[in-house]
Amino acid sequence: MTEFELIRRFTAPAPRRGTGVVLGIGDDCAVLRPPPGELLLATVDAVVEGVHFDARFAPGDVGWKALAVNLSDLAAMGARPLWALCALAVPEGADPRRLAAVGRGLAACARRHGIALAGGNVTRARELSLTVTALGSAPAGRVLRRDGARPGDVLLVSGTLGDAALGLAPGAAAALARRQRRPDPRLALGRALGPLASACIDLSDGLAQDLGHLCRASGTGARVELSRLPLSPAARRALAGAADPFLAPATGGEDYELCAAVPPGRVARALAAARRLRIPLTPVGVVTRGRAVVLEGPSGARYRPARAGHDHLAPHRRKPAF
Ligand SMILES: [Mg+2]
């Protein structure tokens, strides 16, 4: 199969027209027009065979996740998603049907969030990988950053935590495996929080680690009550009788939920906005003075997890962690 056939098969299912696409796939560059008066937000992330996915993933899940993890970064900053570009690396002899299925997964995620695939590239490589650039926009005053949290802000977490990590275990419940394979970026919630939150981050590496990033950027600490962490029914079942029931919810990666710091006077509005969107949003702690990120167990004692969080460079990380 030639490079051009491969690109055609891979990109055929994806939406190509969309808001602000002046010229899409097919020329040397895409020509894109951001909404008037808004800032452009850009992010890039790669998913690599053997590191982020393996043979247990359906090809469609690989394509979906490659885009979804980028959209989660746009969600964390309150952006409206607009466009994506995809650089595909393909091993010699890869099954074209499998590649087409990867493309369909990416297309499904793009359609769900109303964005256009505006460009791409393909190269040979030793393993399959997709490097996706996602672009979005937001009004200048509504960009959510990591560095705006202030002591006293309430920490709110969307959805449920730990599902994606638990979804890696052999025989994991379907609901948990789905969270691992088809993450659902919280774009609408991110935009709703734009005018309300003082800081926000998406949870790709686990709450403990990502909250640490937010606090370091903001020059604050935080106190989280572990008993408040929102758990799905499937996670509760999976964790019943676990030696450490907090490890997955506090440190498990890839949930792609949002963690926002919201000033106390705006918490009711944030919770009401989430209710309108039918997305759970749960207060789990507060931003504090100092630099310590303290996780408090049910007895009030400080909890120190056996591992800090999800490490994307750790070897063999596709071996089930729980
Ligand atoms: Mg992020």
UniProtKB/TrEMBL annotation:
Q: Which residues bind Mg(2+) 1?
A: 45, 121
- Please give one Pfam family short name: AIRS_C
Q: What is this protein called?
A: Thiamine-monophosphate kinase
Q: What else is known?
A: Reaction mechanism of ThiL seems to utilize a direct, inline transfer of the gamma-phosphate of ATP to TMP rather than a phosphorylated enzyme intermediate.
Q: Where does ATP bind?
A: 120-121, 146, 204
Record-linked InterPro entries:
PurM-like_C_dom (IPR010918), PurM-like_C_sf (IPR036676), PurM-like_N (IPR016188), PurM-like_N_sf (IPR036921), ThiL-like (IPR006283)
Q: Which keywords accompany this UniProt record?
A: ATP-binding, Kinase, Magnesium, Metal-binding, Nucleotide-binding, Thiamine biosynthesis, Transferase
Q: Lineage from the top down?
A: Bacteria, Pseudomonadati, Myxococcota, Myxococcia, Myxococcales
Please name the source species.
Anaeromyxobacter paludicola
UniProt: Mg(2+) 4 binding residues: 28, 43, 73
Positions that bind Mg(2+) 5: 205
Occurrences of domain PurM-like N-terminal (ranges) = 26-137
Residues that coordinate or bind Mg(2+) 2: 45, 73
